[in-house]
Design goal:
Shape of chain B: globular
Oligomer: heterodimer
CATH architecture of the largest domain in chain A: 3-Layer(aba) Sandwich
Structural class of chain B: mainly alpha
Number of domains of chain B: 1
Distance between the termini of chain B: 28 Å
Helix content of chain B: over 70%
CATH superfamily of the largest domain in chain A: P-loop containing nucleotide triphosphate hydrolases
Order of helices and strands of chain A: EEEHEEHEHHHEHEHEEHEEEHEH
Number of strands of chain B: 0
Chain lengths: 304, 266
Amino acid sequence: MIAVENLTKRYGLARGVEDLTFHVAPGEVFGYLGPNGAGKTTTIRTALDFIRPTRGRASVFGLDSRKASVEIHRRTGYLPGELRLYERMTAEDHLSYLAELRGGVDRRAIADLAERLDLDLSRKIGALSHGNRQKLGLVQALMHRPELAVLDEPTQGLDPLVQQEFYRLVEEIREEGKTVFLSSHVLPEVERVCDRVGIIREGRLVAVEHVADLKAKAVRKIEIRFAEPVPASAFADVAGLSDVRVHDSVVRCSVTGEMDALVKAAARFHVERLVAEEPSLEDIFLSYYGEEPADTSPSEGDGS
Amino acid sequence: MLRNVLLKTLRDQRRALMWWSIGIAAMVLFTVPFYPSLRDQAESLNKYMEEMPEALRAIFIGQVEDITSPEGFLNSQIFVFMAPLLFSILAVGAGARAIAGEERAGTLDLLLSTPVPRRRVVVHTFAAMVVAVFVVGLVLWGSLAVSGAIWDVGVPASRTAAAVGTVVLLGLVFGSLALAIGSATGSRGSAIGVAAAVGIAAYLVNSLAPVVDLFDDLKVVSPFNYYGLPLARGFDVADAVVLVSASLVLLAAAVVGFEGRDLAVR
């Protein structure tokens, strides 16, 4: 559906992307994960022909991104990462305009999406909050039921309830057999909705993984508080555990992948509280690089 | 009004166009009523004109022979300086806003994510600029016709139509230049700056050509050379062809410049 081959984009002093190669299969939800400034938007904008590659190429629907950009745009819905709208239009007029440029869109599809995302179409764009602008961006990206939706940071600015509705929308699109390419800097989001994930850092692709494999590699920090002090030896040989520290009745450790072994080890004692921290992106990079992030306190990576 | 880029662009401009129309009509209404009293002082005024330094006269009054004749009056007061200036400002504003303005506002990615080719966006915004300048031209023509009848200036409406038409074509050359620069660079500032600098240079070269020999050789590249004194001689087809061709060449340059480059991120 999307094929990126040896794609390099450099501009000026700003970091671009370097030698990216990956494929997105039809019907899959592909997450493009990386911190802000890693090159996610650059990759997307190159695939949609807003910017041109320094080297390499991108194709969408098997069509060359440069030669067939209009055909690609016709069959794609796009939510820009830096969404700017026509401030003086109402939301309704704005969507009508984009719909007209697409040769007409079923009005019910617009109304339905707006209702599901709780967007008031009669308001002027200039008066909309960041979250409502983002909703409008989503509506215009999905209103023509595109074969491929390219969504750059789709949930930024959305409140949690609307995020959930968005995840349901993605699920429905997947069920219709259509393809979604979404970028994110939040791991749990990608884990929740995506089939596969490409991880990008500093313009380079670190890995492309099935979400299940990513989960197996993810390192979570866990803190367990027991009713009474526990012996350190009880957690010494538990599978998947690293970085174990036991202080009286509190155990802190890192778990790679499944937590089953830890939970069973802990269950021998009286557990008062168990707190699991979602792995940060830096922790994920750590698990691929085995190197220490510059801005966090030293901790042991599993160096796979 | 939202069917395509052309109509949407005109819709965006509707308020500005209304103010431009009011301004142009006001300019005419603050000029034409002075004609009868000027005509009555013809002798002393013409004498004063003859004593004026040649260069100064060339710049502000042009080659007007007799500023107390109806054509001479309107030429000197409106068509030599004010109308070309105002129509160029109008067109340059529209041309610079077209691509570069939308890029600066950050909406260009969204617009071009629809199946609208880049070249069509350029052509539509060009067409919107043409329509806007023509509309304001129509207002100028109408104001001249009405006020001319009231204060008995006595220039045939077909004559003023020819003059207004030529002003419109002249303004569009500079507007197209701004469109081309804006499309190729994405910078609205550069578009306005370059178009203004070229416009001023072109005006000075043409106006001072009778006084400065070098400028006399250069004036063939000045659009003002094909503008002349429109009210005195009527519509010159050959000159109009030159002005229209210049705009079309610049439009082509805008398309090529826009298609070949990266869009800016905001």
